[in-house]
Please model this.
Amino acid sequence: MVGVWSRVAGALEARQRRAADYLNGRAGHWGRRELKGLLVVMVLLFGGGGVCVLWEVFNGGSGSARRSVIRVTDSIMRRGKERPDSLDMLEGIYKQSLKSKDNEGK
Model:
């Protein structure tokens, strides 16, 4: 039996081969000069994008994207309590269900 991941890998490989065949067909008549030109354009494009990302990372980025502290609101976690409200709610529901089962049995 073939595993799921093996089938996914096979499907990805088939798509990659189809894309490579298509691109080879489109660029099959190009000469060395055109291919080198395309290579230079791609390197400049992706290299420039990478340099811009690194520049933004090391120079703090724009004023709109600053680091901020994530605050947990009181509705999620009550001050002075170690458990969130949802756990208290679930415990209350559980206790009510136990009481209703006890009342039905009597």
